[in-house]
Amino acid sequence: ELQVVESGGGLVQPGGSLTLSCVASGFTLSTMTMSWVRQAAGKGLQWVARVSSVNRGSRYTVADSVKGRFTVSRDNAKNTLQLQMNNLKPEDTGVYYCVHFTQGVWGQGTHVAVST
User: Fold this and answer.
1) Is 110:92 a contact under the CB 8 Å cutoff?
2) Alpha carbons 100 and 90: distance in angstroms, whole number
3) CB of 12 within 8 A of CB of 34?
4) Are the CB atoms for 70 and 83 separated by under 8 Å?
5) What was the pLDDT predicted at 115?
6) How many Cα atoms are found within 13 Å in the side-chain-facing hemisphere of 35?
7) Distance (Å, rounded) from C-alpha 7 to C-alpha 56?
8) HSE-up of 108 (CA within 13 Å, CB side)?
9) What is the DSSP letter of 32?
10) Which of these, 53, 23, 50, lies nearest to 37 by C-alpha position?
11) Ranges of the chain whose pLDDT falls below 70
């Protein structure tokens, strides 16, 4: 069974940092294109970042709204995807999911709240 589990969310003040992790089981992360998406309360899903598979060049891409603040990375040895989030803003608040869209692999999400 293909599974991912996210962790690392929490409450942080504006300007603060968090690192989200996504641990995969049942498959090798590097063989799949993986994305981070988020959903604020009452709103739709927003794509945040993506790491393409090794076969597709392992390209790291982030959305314009988080460029310069968020960094996505993959640790092949730990089979883990990470999202380093710096200079967080209240609009970054939401549930963050680690996703492989093609095969419909979703985690349970991790909550990020940016507030004073």
Assistant:
1) no
2) 26
3) no
4) yes
5) 96
6) 16
7) 26
8) 4
9) S
10) 50
11) none
Six-digit token string for 41? 């309360």
pLDDT digits 0-9 by tens, 28-48: 999 999 999 999 999 999 999
> CA-to-CA distance for 105 and 116, rounded, in angstroms?
34
Q: How far apart are CA 7 and CA 73, in angstroms?
A: 15
Lookup: tokens for 84: 């380093």
Break the chain down into helix, strand, coil percent, rounded to 5. Answer: 10, 50, 40
Rounded Cα distance between 94 and 110, Å, is 8
What is the Cβ-side half-sphere exposure of residue 12, based on CA atoms within 13 angstroms?
A: 22
Identify residue 105 by its one-letter amino acid code.
V
